[in-house]
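Students often ask what a holo structure prediction actually looks like on paper. The answer is less mysterious than it sounds. You provide the chain, you provide the ligand, and the output is a string of discrete structure tokens encoding the 3D arrangement of the protein together with N-(iminomethyl)-L-glutamic acid.
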Amino acid sequence: MSGILIENIGQLIQVRQDPQKTGKSYCAGQEMDGLPVINNAWLYIREGLIDGFGPMETYPYREDIPVGTKIIDATGRCVFPSFCDCHTHIVFSGSREQEFSDKIRGLTYREIAARGGGILNSASLLQNTPEDELYRQTMERAKELIRFGTGAVEIKSGYGLTVEDEMKMLRVVRRIAEETPLTVKATFLGAHAVPEKYKGRQSEYVDLIVEKMIPQVAQENLAQYVDVFCETGFFTVADTERILTAALKHGLRPKVHANQMDFSGGVQTGVAYGAITVDHLEHTGPEEWDLLAGSDTMPVLLPGSTFYLDMDYAPAREMISRGLPIALASNYNPGSCPAGNLQFMMLLACLKMKMTPAEAVNAVTLNGAHAMDLSFNLGSIAVGKIGNVFITRPIPSYEYFIYAFTSPLVETTILNGKITEL
Ligand code: NIG
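The corresponding structure tokens follow.
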């Protein structure tokens, strides 16, 4: 099969007329509310790449359809570029629904963590899970993401917390990259929590991360990024600086879990170290926004965990009004967001953070791609980009995709120019 030709598309979403994939690779501030759409469109994907698109009046293939082309009639449907989910923790073992009950009874995320629940609970489950079984569980989640319309994903370690178990997680990430059509970026997050045996000796665990884990990750080429949970009760600014210094020394780009529970200094540290993203940002104000505005660091908001932890949402409107870009991600993980559906995350972004549907779509496509260094290839419909799209069931508009937030609206997924069979 040499190509896929999609005709009569009700709405072709996120078309960027940049034939050579040039032009700005993300949108910020007021631009975020501009979502380029072609009504009644066609799209041709050939040999894995987007070859052409346009309104049906310009359809060039009425008589002359290339041999071997699969034709799909998308009447009444939307075609989106596949979503780019730039923050997940999908390598985990088992689940933590008992903490769900604790939470309902009134315990906070921090209190659950302090009692040995939370991340440490997942770490002990993962340490006792063989690598193949961990891969099997992760593969189920990866397929779930594909069904939701995701085509590119960042996946973190951080439930291993020993040298061997962190490497085990990252090898699983590598297998997911090899065995699925997803485009995958891997992040080493050894600094996700301080293991029980290092309690009271936190700096020794940071030594282990800096001296053993990061060098091994780099040597085995297991990740592109290094992340730190910079938060009271987890890792300090000084710990974060040591870890990010080691990351840079080994050619790995920083990321930071920043300002989720408090004004942690994580944004300042991330920006100072040239982080590709700072993520969460529920607790930010003018100081953090101004710093971000003068940087190349993408703010990533994770409304699924804010919802699940019942906290105040990140101030998206303030950030956009100051000209900042925003990426949205699922934060799929067993503790603060056991969900990976970006349709739902966009709904939360719109209802709870007052982002417009256009802003939300930009945040999970173009900006999500930029947040993984992938916007040269993914995140929009542009000639030469990878043929990653999905076709919806019949729906009146892209806004409907967010509005009808529990309806399974993804009908056909195409990744790397091929229809995915799951
Ligand atoms: O991004 N905040 C830190 N990490 C995850 C939660 C992980 C967990 O509770 O297992 C998050 O929310």
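The pocket of N-(iminomethyl)-L-glutamic acid is lined by residues 89, 118-119, 122, 229, 257, 260, 305, 331, 333-336 (CB under 6 Å).
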